[in-house]
Design brief:
homodimer, 3 strands, DNA-binding
Chain lengths: ~150, ~150
DNA sequence: TTCATTTTAATTGTGTACAATCTATTTGTG
DNA sequence: CACAAATAGATTGTACACAATTAAAATGAA
């Protein structure tokens, strides 16, 4: 028997866009683990280091805007990376509210060990180059057009 | 100055496919919160209920395969939903290892309250219908072709 | 200048998410 | 049958992720 609700039910997992997004992100991040284990980094620590490899130095606030993370998440991650001596944390001189994150030489050196991670991971996403390109473009379109959190 | 590393650096956040996937999933789920707060459900509880609205009854193992979650995550979620009386948990009669999850009438009734969630959320993903269609297809392609976790 | 407002991180509490381990049960092989 | 191997959930420990709150510092309007 088929009721009208079965015909097109928006509350079916298979009819949602959010679920494959959620599952896909989670499963891809999970497949990073063996590569990141070699560097003794978690995924969150890894993307933090990627920003630092590029920027060398920035405030927690700016890092949070780039990674879509708040201080509640970043503070412990940054303390961990400070312990590993990949970065330094110090209050900004011109604005004592801000905290300056600075990459260290040891943090810079880590990049050469991470150089093979992206290629290893790329094999997990089995798409044609133009499909990957399209996926990339659509994800950034969604991300860039996101409405504010409440309202 | 532009060094060869800047030309195409795979270790730049902007050159990775995983990061927008991760950020996008996270931000979309975050925007579910106001809608799910009205139902007093978390996102994980919500997708669990979606499976139950469709299947009525299944084992924890099968639920985990559908949601890409293991018992470490599901056990506390299912206990919470049991507390709320949306489902029952009982050992399978024919195989005492298995745990049968069953939706309750109260769980069924919740569906009518959730009916407006997907439409509210759809407004968060600002894509043309055919773009959303493409994104959906590509995400499932990645998900279906995922290599095993180790190896 | 003064004091309310805003901004920036840190802290607290809840809820995933997952690897590793443990326990009970079932299955498969001799 | 007997026992090793496999299976299903639960438990443990670590690490996010985020809302809400707190505390310190900077800003701005009267």
């Amino acid at each position: 028997m088929m009721t009208s609700a079965d015909y097109y039910d928006p509350l079916k997992l298979g009819n949602q866009l959010c679920f494959p997004l959620y599952a896909c992100a989670k499963e891809i991040v999970r497949r990073y683990k063996p590569y990141l284990d070699e560097l003794d980094l978690t995924y969150t620590q890894y993307i933090t280091m990627m920003v630092l490899w590029e920027k060398k130095s920035l405030r927690v606030k700016e890092l949070g805007e780039i990674l879509y993370l708040d201080s509640g998440t970043l503070t412990p991650v940054l303390k961990k990376l400070e312990q590993k001596q990949y970065l330094t944390r110090q209050r900004s001189a011109e604005d004592e509210r801000g905290l300056d994150i600075h990459i260290t030489p040891k943090g810079e050196a880590l990049k050469s060990k991470a150089i093979n991670v992206p290629a290893g991971m790329a094999k997990c996403i089995r798409l044609e180059p133009e499909e990957a390109q399209t996926l990339y473009r659509l994800l950034y379109k969604v991300l860039d057009d996101l409405p504010p959190v409440t309202g």
